[in-house]
Probable Fe(2+)-trafficking protein
Amino acid sequence: MSRTIYCEYLKKEAEGLDFQMYPGELGEKIYQHISKQAWAEWQKKQTMLINEKRLNMMDPEARKFLEEQMKAFLFEGEDIEIEGYTPPQQ
């Protein structure tokens, strides 16, 4: 059974995540306030960021950087700029 939450990213009711995807307090906030759709959008951005910046996920600094980007993207409405990436024209 899916759960409906108010998604802070989409600014509307949407299907919530099935379980907490991220540890700790931030993970709980994401679980309560971020939809499956918004999380999928972030996953795409995250993959592009990791590839573009050649982030080593074993490096605590890289993980901290990604977490800051994730918070800005999901909760502060900031689009993540990917250098050398041009979004497809609508």
Summary: The mean pLDDT is 92. The longest strand covers residues 4-7. Residues 42 and 70 are 7 Å apart (CA to CA). The chain has one domain: 4-75.
